[in-house]
Amino acid sequence: MSKTIIISNRLPLQISLEDSNLEVTPSVGGLATGLKSFHKDGDSIWIGWSGLTEEEIPENLLDDVKEKARKEDCVAVNLSEEEIDGFYYGFSNRTIWPLFHYFMEYTEADKDHWETYKSVNRKYADEVLKHYEDGDHIWVHDYQLLLVPNMIREKQPEAIIGFFNHIPFPSYEVFRTLPWRDEVLEGVLGADLIGFHTYDYERHFLSSVSRILRHQVNFNEITLPERIVKVDSFPMGIDYNKFEAAAQNHFKNTEEQRTELQRRLDHHSNETPEAKLILSIDRLDYTKGIANRIRAFEYFLDNHPEFIEKVRLVMLAVPSRSNVPQYQRLKREIDELVGRINGKFSTVSWTPIWYFYRSMPFENLIDLYTSCDIALLTPIRDGMNLVAKEFVATRINQTGVLILSEMAGAAHEMNEALIINPNNFEQISQTLIQAIEMPIEEQQQRNKTLQKRLKRYSVEKWANDFMKALHNTSQDRDAFKA
Ligand code: ADQ
């Protein structure tokens, strides 16, 4: 029987060492949680890095790591510290990530990083080839593995391969600046089906293929000498039922079950029922527009002092890629901004920004989503942004207002949110007032429509739609040959 082979940089589980014992915890993050149900329910294996470098795994535990992964139908790819440096922190996060998010000034072109990226992509492809059997469907994920589709294709020309890019694909004018642009496009074109979150990313990719590689592009099909490649948009959804159920449970919590954070947030609402809580949650990343958001909030308080003590920004930034210099600088910048603004506006009974720099357990995430009145998500660029969708799914009484940047892929599907340009502080400030003053009925009306859509376009449907389309490409291929 044929199976699906999922490949992503990280496995959906994280293996760590605690007092010389191996611990397995589920990975957080959109992709891991999203595909987990698809992986569990179907006949599939998942190939990726376990989270421990070769140097960190003691010789006698090597087989145990493999066994722990195998129990979850996972296969761990072993990577050394040097490989992680060049492949992950290097080429993936210092070249592709900034370039694809239009941060050209942050984009490095380091030949050694590129060489390591190639050899690590080869490692992932080799692992796939070890497990591949005729008829299997292969699904490669994201910008860390752009070369894997073609590396598999070279060895298995008949394989059915899908690729999904979770981040934006930039316009041709930006993409063309990459020194290894041909190799990257050829790598991805090893797939039969290439998926993006939005039609815009799809269009940008097609235009790069036609202008750089000069392949013929008809509508959403690329004609290669030996086969056709399909490109399409598949906007990723969330596990809606999980977030809805978690929010329902949150409200059923007894006094003892309530988390410390829930108590604090409830205390805030009881003490100052008219004061609005404005929430933001992101990985600490320059693409998420965190510094801009704080400046926009300052602009809002400067220009509308009537809201002093009437609003509070609750900001969760999850540590991320802290080995990369830009992330370290951003962390310092945000620390300074928060300090400056709290110093400037605080009163004896009020601080304008509550800032958490840490990862929080899922229950706390739900505490934040359910207790806040407004979500203010202002990425400068974002492939999709699942936080926007999760916030809406947890609003079980349909109150709450989502303010979302037009630069997030999610904005294309969430018209009922208040859509802003993250660089326009005056607009953000006016939109905050609109959100604060929005009548409950209007909030409910907007959220009802959003919830209906998010429930229907869940992550499960996303995965099934992609796999169905991939399956169809194999049938089209037979027709092409005939
Ligand atoms: P990210 O840039 O990581 O993902 P996002 O889509 O917002 O951004 O997903 C973050 C995920 O992490 C959410 O599911 C959220 O619940 C979870 N999360 C955040 N903080 C957490 C915490 N403290 N504890 C546990 N979980 C936490 C990339 C792209 C996005 C794209 C996704 C999926 O950059 O644009 O939407 O992949 O394709």
From TrEMBL:
It catalyses: D-glucose 6-phosphate + UDP-alpha-D-glucose = alpha,alpha-trehalose 6-phosphate + UDP + H(+). GO terms for biological process: trehalose biosynthetic process. GO terms for cellular component: cytosol. Its EC number is 2.4.1.15. The keyword Glycosyltransferase applies. Residues 244-271 form a coiled coil. It comes from the Bacteria. Keywords: Coiled coil, Glycosyltransferase, Transferase. GO terms for molecular function: alpha,alpha-trehalose-phosphate synthase (UDP-forming) activity; trehalose-phosphatase activity. Pathway: Glycan biosynthesis; trehalose biosynthesis. In the C-terminal section; belongs to the trehalose phosphatase family. Homotetramer. This is Alpha,alpha-trehalose-phosphate synthase. It comes from Salegentibacter mishustinae. The chain holds residues 1 to 482 of 737 of the full protein.
